[in-house]
């Protein structure tokens, strides 16, 4: 699988500018009123930096977490709403096919609740009837492929066209494990009270959707048990998330005939014919054992069970786009998973959906209205400074040989930064959008996305493409592209403010830049070379030293208890923790090259170094519901925010000096125990 490493879980947040707040000037980038001075920074730096803010900002009922990212999202989604409503109100003024007209049509259909309520589940009746007409197992398996091409979902397994990680200039067909609906395989396999509660809610959800689509209650309940049993068997065959982080374990190239022999129950020639992909000499498979077991499962599964499973995939994939009983059922289930108290308003869900479906049409309007060109210029300068700082740190590493250092610097110099928005906008040519059919718009979008992906087969790599839309407050690193990407949405306070002092920007967006750079050198990204190729560039000795250091970092995070007996998973979060540790160190190195970084002048009572670390800390302030936290630990490669606040600083001498951290403080680590990787 071609991974992209994000700064924050995608369910996290989007954007805000400090100028959007009613405020007195001058604006305090570090506000003492948000800090808990009754706690020593060396005992709990997260509480010290953010305690009063957290106390005064409880989680709103419509959220599962609340913090800087969520505040940004709320501001941003309102900005997006303004764009969409303006376009909607002036829809007839815009020419057909223009970005304004198309986003207005999509949003109008999405907000037409009267029409949606009237239709009920009519939009999916033809598809349910097609499933009823299936008479053989081969027909059912062929329907799995048809679903993928027609925007109906992706049952049983994943399929896409992506870069060959050992030949990155080539786009090849790739298969990935799948077939399950719960957030992670472990949700099917665990027997603790929390997991059992989720399993029962899931079964209830399945039964409810079938009932809403006209299935008698007893049959609906039986369907739920059937689906759960099938998905549990698929979950048992899947690789775990930690194992999936290994790019070599998930790189398995098969000759076509060899792979077919391993999966006799699936006629891949027929599947690929339906998928619209010419038969290839070879194929990449992320989890071969899963597909071998999938073949065994299909051999034992009746056609009637497969038909029920296919119907379930239609129902779960469509529920959010149908009438309110379906939407309410989906939310009732998600409440058990996340703890969310009330449903997010429809306008907010549909604004986010518009961004998700046609984000580069919406993004053009967003950039024109909200993005300042000077932000891009300043960001480019910061990226350049962080790159210089990273090179200095590589040169000064005491555990790495000169040969490996040179390879690391070659990779660093080859990084491609993308800032703000794409140079070439996606036009969504061929995507039919109507102001009168929400469900059909979603079907069309799914089919269009699939067709766009398949069209990349045997084509040159498009290095202008983005994996995020411009309004997104996030960032990412792509190892196969060796690129670091920062959408326009993140270039705002508390991450970035052009008028702020350097300590603020280097502690926040500087740490983000460094974080994404460090992903190129984390436990997974470090296995790709400067060209994005999965290829070892380390000496044997240096690699052993690196793995020993990452094991220490893993143990540090394993020790953090977040809920009941639940610990942070140091192996699952390893890449992100390396990103934070490396990123903050690189940002600090760059900050010390600035005039402010070399001074001792206080602002609002804080030294430059204190402001740097406090700026970093306030980016990760926030709270999260217990249910959402438990889910995060099992599924999210990012550590919870409060542990990101402390995880990197406790390994930095500069933090100890800045806040006078002494032996006896709870977070104190002896100098010799402070971990330095990058």
Description:
This protein has 678 residues and is of the alpha+beta class. It is 52% helix and 8% strand. The radius of gyration is 25 Å and the shape is globular.
User: What form results from the Cα inertia axes?
Assistant: globular
* Beta content: 5-15%
Radius of gyration: 25 Å
Number of helices: 27
Biggest pleated-sheet summary: 4 strands, mixed
CATH fold group of the largest domain: Collagenase (Catalytic Domain)
State the oligomer.
Answer: single chain
The helix content, as a percent range, equals: 40-55%
Low-confidence runs = 10-24
Task: State the secondary-structure class.
Answer: alpha+beta
Terminus-to-terminus distance: 26 Å
Q: What is the CATH C-level name of the largest domain?
A: Alpha Beta
The CATH superfamily name of the largest domain is Collagenase (Catalytic Domain)
Major sheet strand order: 1-8-9-7
> CATH architecture of the largest domain, please?
3-Layer(aba) Sandwich
Annotate the secondary structure layout.
Elements: E1 5-6, H1 45-56, E2 65-67, H2 68-89, H3 99-111, H4 113-119, H5 125-132, H6 137-149, E3 157-164, E4 167-177, H7 186-189, H8 193-212, H9 217-237, H10 241-244, E5 253-255, H11 256-262, H12 268-275, E6 282-285, H13 288-300, H14 303-318, H15 324-338, H16 346-370, H17 373-396, H18 402-414, E7 416-420, H19 438-454, E8 476-478, E9 483-487, H20 502-507, H21 509-519, H22 540-558, E10 561-563, E11 566-567, H23 574-591, H24 608-619, E12 622-624, H25 626-635, H26 641-647, H27 653-659
Parallel strand pairs: 4-6, 7-9
Antiparallel strand pairs: 1-8, 2-12, 3-4, 5-6, 8-9, 10-11
Helix pairs in contact: 2-3, 2-16, 3-16, 5-14, 6-12, 6-14, 8-9, 8-15, 9-13, 9-14, 17-18, 17-21, 17-23, 21-23
């Amino acid at each position: 699988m071609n991974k992209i490493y994000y700064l924050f879980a995608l369910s996290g947040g989007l954007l805000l500018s400090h100028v959007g707040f009613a405020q007195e000037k001058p604006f305090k980038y570090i506000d003492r009123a948000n800090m808990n001075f009754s706690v020593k920074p060396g005992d709990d730096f997260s509480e010290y930096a953010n305690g009063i803010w957290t106390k005064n900002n409880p989680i709103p009922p419509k959220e599962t977490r609340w913090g800087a990212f969520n505040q940004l999202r709320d501001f941003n989604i309102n900005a997006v709403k303004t764009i969409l409503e303006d376009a909607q109100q002036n829809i007839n003024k815009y020419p057909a096919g223009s970005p304004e007209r198309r986003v207005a049509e999509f949003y109008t259909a999405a907000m037409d609740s009267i029409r949606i309520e009237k239709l009920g589940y009519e939009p999916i009746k033809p598809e349910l009837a097609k499933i009823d007409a299936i008479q053989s197992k081969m027909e059912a398996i062929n329907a799995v492929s048809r679903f993928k091409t027609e925007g109906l979902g992706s049952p049983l397994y994943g399929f896409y066209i992506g870069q060959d990680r050992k030949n990155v200039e080539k786009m090849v067909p790739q298969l990935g494990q799948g077939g399950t609906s719960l957030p992670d395989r472990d949700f099917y396999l665990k027997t603790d009270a929390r997991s059992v509660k989720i399993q029962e809610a899931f079964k209830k959800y399945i039964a409810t959707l079938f009932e809403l689509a006209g299935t008698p209650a007893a049959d609906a309940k039986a369907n739920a048990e059937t689906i759960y049993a099938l998905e549990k068997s698929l979950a048992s065959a899947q690789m775990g998330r930690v194992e999936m982080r290994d790019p070599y374990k998930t790189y398995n190239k098969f000759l076509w005939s060899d792979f077919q022999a391993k999966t006799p129950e699936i006629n891949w020639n027929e599947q690929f014919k339906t998928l619209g992909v010419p038969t290839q000499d070879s194929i990449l498979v992320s989890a071969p054992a899963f597909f071998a077991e999938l073949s065994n499962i299909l051999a034992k599964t009746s056609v009637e069970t497969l038909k029920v499973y296919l119907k379930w995939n239609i129902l779960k994939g469509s529920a959010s786009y149908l009438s309110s009983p379906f939407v309410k059922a989906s939310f009732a289930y998600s409440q058990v998973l996340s703890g969310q108290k009330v449903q997010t308003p429809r306008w907010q869900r549909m604004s986010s959906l518009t961004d998700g479906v046609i984000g580069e049409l919406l993004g053009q309007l967003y950039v024109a209205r909200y993005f300042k060109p000077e932000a891009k210029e300043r960001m480019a300068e910061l990226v350049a400074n962080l790159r210089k700082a990273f090179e200095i740190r590589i040169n000064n590493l005491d555990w790495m040989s000169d040969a490996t250092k040179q390879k690391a610097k070659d990779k660093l110099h080859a990084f491609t930064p993308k800032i703000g928005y794409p140079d070439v906008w996606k036009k969504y040519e061929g995507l039919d959008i109507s102001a009168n059919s929400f469900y059909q718009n979603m079907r069309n979008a799914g089919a269009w996305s699939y067709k766009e992906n398949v069209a990349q087969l045997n084509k040159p790599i498009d290095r202008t493409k983005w994996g995020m839309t411009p309004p997104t407050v996030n960032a990412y690193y792509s190892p196969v592209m060796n690129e670091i990407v920062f959408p326009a949405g993140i270039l705002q306070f508390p991450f970035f403010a052009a008028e702020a002092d350097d300590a603020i920007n280097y502690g926040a967006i500087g740490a983000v830049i460094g974080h994404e750079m460090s992903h190129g050198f984390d436990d997974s990204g470090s296995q790709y070379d400067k060209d994005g190729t999965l290829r070892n560039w380390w000496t044997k000795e240096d690699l052993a030293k690196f793995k020993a250091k990452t094991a220490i970092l893993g143990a540090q995070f394993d020790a953090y208890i977040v809920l009941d007996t639940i610990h942070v998973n140091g192996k699952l979060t390893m890449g992100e923790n390396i990103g934070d540790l490396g990123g903050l160190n690189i940002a600090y190195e760059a900050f010390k090259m600035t005039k402010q970084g070399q001074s001792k002048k206080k602002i609002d009572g804080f030294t430059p170094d204190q402001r740097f670390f406090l700026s970093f800390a306030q980016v990760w302030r926030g709270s999260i519901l217990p249910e959402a936290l438990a889910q995060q630990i099992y599924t999210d490669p990012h550590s919870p925010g409060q542990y990101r606040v402390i995880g990197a600083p406790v390994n930095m001498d500069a933090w100890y000096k800045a806040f006078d951290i002494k032996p006896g403080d709870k977070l104190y680590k002896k100098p010799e125990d402070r971990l330095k990787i990058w």
